[in-house]
Write a structure and sequence with these properties.
Length: 318
């Protein structure tokens, strides 16, 4: 069993490749390196420096490495940028996935693990978000993830493609400095970047209807997320399921609570600056995780302070 990991030189992808290798599952990385780094990929893991839109190159990679399953993580993921450049996000995320699905079918690959996002839920009106809620994304990024979910479900119906979709909540932390999150899209790396530059972190809106006025998110350690991929890969190895799972801790923290954790871990008290809300940001969401615990035997292990501590340890210091 060989797994092709698209976006395997990225932040989450690098951790997934490491977890696959630790579990004895061979991996091949496909990454155009537009945001990924070869430093995240072990030297003995083959890397295909290929654009996902290049059907012939993707198909050749699947065949040359005798790939039997694909883990698809490659995507553009900045919510704010997606609002400003929606067509670009549709081209990259939806168009690239369409090419990948065609290549998978042509190569006879029967297993796909799709990286999705809690953004597909939009702004649900309940604290615990279950997998069966209607998908009502607020941003073009969330819309592209929703469309990709529809596409893989349609491929399952038409071609009997076995799939698992993992809807990540807010991914934090790092297993090592080489695997650090350098994308600076999410709260923790944004805050660490500001602290390293001697600035106060920004809080995008403090007038939400929450316990301290700031958004609530479910944060999950990237090492736990990588382990969830291994559990899902083993499920796919056992057959051709059609399953969707939330990947989170099952509890939410406000922006101010995360910043307080950063203060605890770093030993600093840098404060914060409140600015206007960002378009497309929902008020609150937290994962219901009983399904993934029950069916895959997966449970998040790391606490918020654990996540922040690992992110800070891996963050480049002046």
């Amino acid at each position: 069993m060989t797994w092709l990991v698209t976006g395997g030189a990225g932040y989450i992808g690098g951790h997934v490749v490491a977890a696959l290798r630790a579990a004895g599952l061979p991996a091949v990385v496909l990454d155009d390196l537009s945001t990924g780094s070869l430093a995240r990929v072990p030297a003995d893991v083959p890397v295909l420096t290929v654009a996902l839109h290049d059907f012939d190159a993707v198909l050749a990679g699947l065949r040359d490495h005798e790939v039997t399953g694909v883990i698809h993580l490659a995507a553009k993921k900045a919510v704010g940028e997606s609002v400003e450049r929606p067509l670009y996000y549709y081209r990259e995320n939806v168009g690239g996935f369409e090419v990948l699905l065609r290549a998978i079918r042509s190569a006879g690959v029967s297993r796909l693990l799709l990286s999705s996002s809690a953004s597909v839920y939009g702004n649900p009106d309940q604290d615990q978000v279950t997998e069966d809620l209607p998908l009502r994304p607020l941003s073009p990024y969330g819309q592209t993830k929703t469309v990709c979910e529809w596409m893989v479900a349609a491929a399952h119906q038409a071609y009997e493609l076995g799939y698992v979709t993992l809807r990540y909540f807010n991914v934090v932390g790092a297993a090592s400095r080489e695997l650090a999150d350098t994308g600076v899209f999410n709260l923790v790396p944004l805050a660490l970047q500001a602290i390293s530059a001697g600035r106060q972190p920004l809080v995008f809106g403090a007038d939400y209807p929450t316990r301290d006025g700031t958004c609530i998110r479910d944060y999950v350690d990237v090492r736990d997320v990588a382990d969830a991929h291994v559990a899902a890969a083993r499920l796919l190895d056992a057959g051709k399921p059609a399953a969707v799972y939330n990947v989170g801790r099952g509890e939410g923290f406000t922006v101010k609570e995360v910043l307080a954790a950063i203060d605890r871990v770093t030993g600093m008290d840098v404060g914060y600056q409140v600015v206007d809300r960002r378009p497309g940001d929902p008020t609150s969401y937290c994962a219901a995780v009983d399904k993934i615990e029950r069916e895959l035997g997966w449970t998040a292990r790391y606490t918020l302070d654990d996540m922040v501590a690992s992110a800070w340890a891996a963050w480049p210091k002046p």
